[in-house]
Amino acid sequence: MSQTATLPASPETFEDQAAPETRIRSYWQSVGYRLRHDKMTLFFGSIVLLIVLAAVFAPLLAPFDPYKESIIGRLKPIGWRNHTLGTDELGRDMLTRLLYGGRVSLLMGIVPVIFATCIGGMLGVMAGFMGGRVNTGIMRTMDVFYAFPSVLLAVAISGAMGGGMMNGMLALTLVFIPPMCRVAETATTQVRSLDFIEAARATGAGTFVIVRHHVLGNVLGPVFIYASSLVSVSILLASGLSFLGLGVRPPTADWGLMLSTLRQSIYVVPFVCALPGVAIFVTSICFNLVSDGLRAAMDVRM
Amino acid sequence: MSRYILQRILYAIPIAFGVSVVCFSLVYLAPGDPLQTVLPPDATAETIEIVKKAYGFDKPLPIQFLIWLGKVVTGDFGMSIATRRPVLDEIIMALSNTGMLAMFAIPTAFTIGFLMGLLAGCFPGKWIDRGVTGTAVFGVSLPNYWLAIVMVIIFAVELSWLPATGMGPKGSAEFSIWRWSDTQFLVLPVITLSMIPIGIISRTTRAAIAEMRNQDFVQTLRAKGLSEFAVIRHVIKNALPGVLAVMGLQFGYLLGGSILVETVFTWPGSGFLLSKAIINRDVPVLQGTILTLAIAFVMTNLIIDLLQSMIDPRIRRG
To answer: Residue B284: pLDDT above 50?
Structure first.
């Protein structure tokens, strides 16, 4: 009885003995290990999570209606009655609007990066893998967009198209495609000439199979890290566009737009006017530091 | 060397051409009839006919582009819808004002950023390094228009040390950088504009210096008995090309970032002109300003490239 119970377990104990202490971790295991021991990244990552959750559950968390105006309660300082963070120029509760504003700002910050990563990444892999004329064609086109400072390009496109949230996101996507494409192209070109690709080709693997199984795995790391660093830039640019009046239309709450409309009131309630900027700054810096932590954990060099 | 210069200039031409194609197509991105986009809404049928002829709006797109390009090269950017003045006049005026900001912001940002990065790179891991790296992260994530507002709140509203906005009562025509009553209007915009480049440049410089200090040649120099000062001189020389490239990009950032900062300070420069053009849906001004700034950016990067190759001969051979 006792023997039958111990027998199936014996191979495991044998394995444990064979590999004492130095357990070999897979790549993702070691990335996870490094992340778990990086207190800074964990801390800022949890703030990012909190910000995202606060934006998602804004209707549940917000103490007031974001559009409820009040003529007598306009431009009240921080801590006025029930308004923890004061009120804006139309008497709307600032805390509520900051929570709701996060929804638009995060959306406008993250969506363009996702689209640009897919499109730019694909173009970059194509340019890097096919080389020759295709590479020249794609990369030289990208160079033209590089000739515009990013803020300028975003403003030019969304300004010409007449503003609005959709146009803003489209403009930001276009702004991020060229750098994304360049990162993907560099990574692909580096892998392309390596021996294992040659070996795969020699065994009869087609282009699609090689790209899918051998190239993508090596390109996704740098692309992912670069995309994560773009989120912070994108949030800054998106609220910049809203600040110029190129984002959402009032009365929708958005951090950039709030900053712009409150600007006229800095002599009345200076600290309330600075609040939306604090939100943008904190969000952007947290995304930035999380991205730095991920880069270190994934050991990606760019 | 001259061959390399020629090569680089030849390479910049197609880029500049591409840039003008993008700017040209901005008019077609605008919703509605492109003719309506470049004309004031109350234009008479006569004016519409004249403009249609002059810009060839009845001809195919490539011809339209060539006509437009021909006009742009001779400095004709069309008429502003809002002010009815030639776009070129508006741009020249605005650029000179932005140039004044840049003249102060660029040296400030580049020297402070470089010195901070140099100090941090020479003492990696020490408190000064951690301080600089921390400041750099702040600088990169800072929304500069918010910084501008905070600056105004602190120095103009709370302390009332400096004027909040504008260029002074006399405007840009009589502005003199030698009079404090005028120069004080420059202080806040210049500080705001230089903050982000300081962050980015110090970060890059720190990385470049720290990497160079680990190279073998540094050990050789030390072994030869060179003083620490002489060693650092060699390190700087080797780290400089990479830093210069980032400085070129930051110049573009100053051009672009000025849109938001100038809007906050209502500084009548190219950025303020752009934001006014957006509010007025003034596409000719938008197009002209973007084109001018982008071409300026291309030229700067060309110059930076040539400077790099002068410092580091390896670049022009490779």
So the answer is: yes
Look at residue A121 and tell me whether its pLDDT is greater than 60. yes
pLDDT recorded at residue B119: 87
Q: Residue type for B90, please?
A: E
Q: What is the DSSP string of A7-47?
A: GGGHHHHHHHHHS-S-PPPPHHHHHHHHHHT-HHHHHHHHH
CB atoms within 10 A of CB B318: 7
ipTM: 0.81
- Helix boundaries (H) for chain A: 2-6, 10-18, 27-36, 39-56, 58-61, 94-130, 132-146, 150-161, 165-192, 195-202, 207-210, 216-243, 255-262, 270-298
CA distance B257 to chain A (A): 6
Residues of chain B contacting A149 with CB distance shorter than 8 Å: 252-253, 255-257, 293-294, 297
**Mean pLDDT of all residues in chain B?**
81
Cα separation, A227 vs A117, whole angstroms: 6
Find, in chain A, the residue whose alpha carbon is nearest to that of B15.
Answer: A144
* Cβ neighbours of A243 in B, within 8 Å: 145, 260, 263
What is the mean pLDDT of the segment spanning A74-81? 69
In tens, the pLDDT along B118-138 reads 888 888 778 888 888 888 888
The torsion angles phi and psi of B274, rounded to 5 degrees, stand at -60, -45
User: Could you tell me if A284 lies within 8 Å of chain B, comparing CB atoms?
Assistant: yes
Q: Do A145 and B22 touch (CB under 8 A)?
A: yes
Residue A113: predicted pLDDT = 94
Q: In chain A, where are the structural domains located?
A: 38-66+89-298
Q: Do B153 and A149 touch (CB under 8 A)?
A: no
Optimal mutation site among B11, B25, B29, interface A, most CBs of chain A within 10 A = B29
Distance from CA of A23 to the nearest CA of B (A): 31
The residues pairing with B79 across neighbouring beta strands, listed in sequence order, are: B86
CATH of domain A38-66+89-298: 1.10.3720.10
Residue A118 has a pLDDT of 93
Contacts with B248 from chain A: Cβ below 8 Å? none
Q: How far apart are CA A213 and CA A121, in angstroms?
A: 16
Q: Indicate which of B22, B98, B146 best probes the interface with A, i.e. most A CBs within 10 Å of its own CB.
A: B146
Give φ, ψ of A62 to 5 degrees.
Answer: -65, 135
Q: Is the pLDDT of residue A5 over 60?
A: no
Residue-wise pLDDT for B6-34, tens only, equals 888 888 888 888 888 888 888 787 776 76
Out of A152, A163, A263, the one facing B264 most closely (by C-beta) is A263
Specify burial of residue A119 (Cβ count, 10 A radius: 0-12, 13-18, 19+).
middle
Q: Which residues of B touch A278 (CB under 8 A)?
A: 146
Q: How far is B223 from chain A (nearest CA, A)?
A: 31
A280 touches chain B (CB under 8 A): yes
